């Protein structure tokens, strides 16, 4: 029977050949509707295609741009309330016109793409308006749409795309609107402009000079007040890489808010436009060249503005990196250095870019060129592409996710209880999960993931409200409100500390996991290394003896009582503490021989009840060098042998007739009954590996909900199948299709032939597979278990290695959405 071994080697090899890329798994996963994360959702039948989100300064009102409407939502309470809704849809005629021109009817609505505060009383909004963009002022209090005396709205060309699928960005500064969008119906005239300028400030746009923008996709924009600059982020064709066809590059471009254009040259055009490449790339690797989203993270108070960071999500145009996304951080100081450096020149005859050779007449990108000479302005007009690229902080990727396509992100600086600041990123996956990750010195740690939608959909916007502790996600049918943390979900100090969530710390006084900022005294928290022993130690609870669950410190529990008949299969369930935790079982014999015990992938333990296997079982989880009991069971023989086929009772029937076999472990746990002499089986005992005895005292308590044995129905079913010899086949399929046919035929035949003989035997033998085939048909599940066991072992080996190195070689079966089913503790 070398097949299971062979199989595990094979699968192991496949795993290695597969995507063993350094990656991170979220520690806990909350699928939709899980109590640990109650999500507030606002959806009305008449709201669809949420595209823009805008939060009032006080954080009480969320303005939402959707299809044919703008809404004001009151988000000051936990449940979202609609305050007002503005209908703003194109006329029937306009929509008919639009579809006559060959556009999909569904796209001929008004999709709100610009929603910005102008001043304290007014909002400026623009929508695609049936491929004929319009803009309007909205009074925020009371909420209504303003139109010109003739009842018309403003022309929106250059401020909003025509096509609802085209991306754009817009930002208002001092009542002026800075936009980046395509400015024509065909979608091939990209432009960066300023509108709503007043007085000496005039509206500006980009000159039509060759190469200012090359088929760009605009992502976002950011205002840096101290520099009086607006930065635009986008991707476009990198024509300077003329040796690669259609090479996409990510860019940052800048303009000065003080710009008023030139007097003769560059009249009504930007004199301060410059762009540079954003290079999300680590050494010796292809760049992640396509920017998906980028956000600004202001530096902590008292630190230079140049430490402002821009966190971006990038994907790659090359298949070698397809399906992955990377996060890069760029520092404002580095960006300014690049813009202050040299610029490339475009040779107008050959259309080739080269590093500048002519004399530097001016500093492109510099603010305040209004009165500059024509010569200077001509120079800046032709020199706008910085020679250097902006490299990420530390010249490396902040994170790379091998299997997640991130689309949007939000960033927040969180002060932990030790006073240190941590960067927390909220990353939305295309499959519908919001990952919460904290940046640590040695990499990223994903604290949790929360499922925010089930059907994949293009989310246009997420918005973080720091004051409310909420991330708003704009869905196609509404707005979702996801709390940035829920510390009370962690019910013990170890759980609280192991989460390594900078938001959450253990309040020693009130014995609860709470918001770190709300705890007065020294709180239990260790974001950097999650050291439970240190963070949860207190004079009351010495390091070696504290107990995972509060209020349960001294209640020793013998465990869930499981009584079954001899030779019946016992399956003990074990909850998952976290995805980073490893589970293992300990039982009456010091090591659970794989010949007798089957540790399944879901963490459960399966074995046959024999005099040897009676006793106390512990499911122990190890995470970050911290061990805790997840479940305790007391497995005994059922007194009445006539009830063989019924479900093993969870009713507490105390074992009387039989005592526990003596444990070989050195006093690690109390025994319920004094050990008696039990007739030893003839088979050699499972060998005890030296060093497997743990010397630490473990306090046993009922930490978690215990999973009871499968319900009677399924158990009966199992017994039934067992009698028909079907479990055998079923189990094998679980192992692998590779094994299927040959082994099934072989073993079924073998079993069938010895079945009669087996029945007479009562004493099960548990030494080797060969012997097992001599046993009664009730042994079948165990024997069949041989194959899944090797499967389980393979995982047991792969997981620790993988996690230890920060590499993920995840071979466990996943749900259809690529996520493990969530098991909240
Ligand atoms: C936080 O977690 C607790 C415990 O799981 C749960 O009862 C509560 O509803 C959660 N709160 C939120 C806002 O998700
Ligand atoms: C609007 O939402 C529908 C349904 O989710 C989607 O199919 C459609 O593509 C969306 N339209 C735009 C312009 O995003
Ligand atoms: C805000 O802008 C609107 C539109 O330009 C203007 O009518 C209004 O007076 C401004 N309000 C304030 C307080 O400046
Ligand atoms: C530019 O020149 C005009 C007229 O010569 C002058 O009034 C203005 O102050 C100058 N602006 C700057 C910024 O120097």
Mean pLDDT across every amino acid position: 76
Bound molecules: 2-acetamido-2-deoxy-beta-D-glucopyranose
Strand order of the largest sheet: 16-17-18-19-25-23-24
State the share of residues found in helices, binned by percent: 10-25%
Q: What Rg is obtained from the alpha carbons, in whole angstroms?
A: 33 Å
Strand fraction equals 25-35%
For the termini, the CA-CA separation is 39 Å
Low-confidence stretches: 1-22, 541-556, 641-740, 743-825
Could you name the CATH homologous superfamily of the domain at 548-639 and 710-722?
Immunoglobulins
The total count of helices amounts to: 12
The secondary structure category is alpha+beta
CATH architecture of the domain at 548-639 and 710-722: Sandwich
- Main β sheet profile: 7 strands, mixed
CATH C-level class of the domain at 548-639 and 710-722: Mainly Beta
Q: Based on DSSP secondary structure assignment, what is the total number of beta strands?
A: 42
Summarize the structure.
The chain contains 12 helices and 42 strands. The strands form 10 sheets. It has a 7-stranded mixed beta sheet, covered by helices on one side. It has a 5-stranded mixed beta sheet with strand order 1-30-29-28-27, with no helix packed on it.
Structure description:
Residues 769-778 have a biased composition (Basic and acidic residues). It comes from Umbra pygmaea (Eastern mudminnow). Keywords: Disulfide bond, Glycoprotein, Membrane, Transmembrane, Transmembrane helix. It is elongated and about 100 Å long. The longest helix is centred in the last third of the chain and has 20 residues, at 740-759. Among the domains are: 483-535, ligand-binding face of the semaphorins, domain 2; 548-639 and 710-722, Immunoglobulins (Immunoglobulin-like); 779-825, no CATH class. The strands form ten sheets. Strands 16-17-18-19-25-23-24 form a seven-stranded mixed β-sheet, covered by helices on one side. A five-stranded mixed β-sheet has the order 1-30-29-28-27, with no helix packed on it. It is built from twelve helices and 42 strands. It is of the alpha+beta class and 825 residues long. Helix 1 (3-17) runs parallel beside helix 12 (786-804). The two termini are 39 Å apart. Bound molecules: 2-acetamido-2-deoxy-beta-D-glucopyranose (4 copies). Residues 370-371 line the site of one 2-acetamido-2-deoxy-beta-D-glucopyranose.
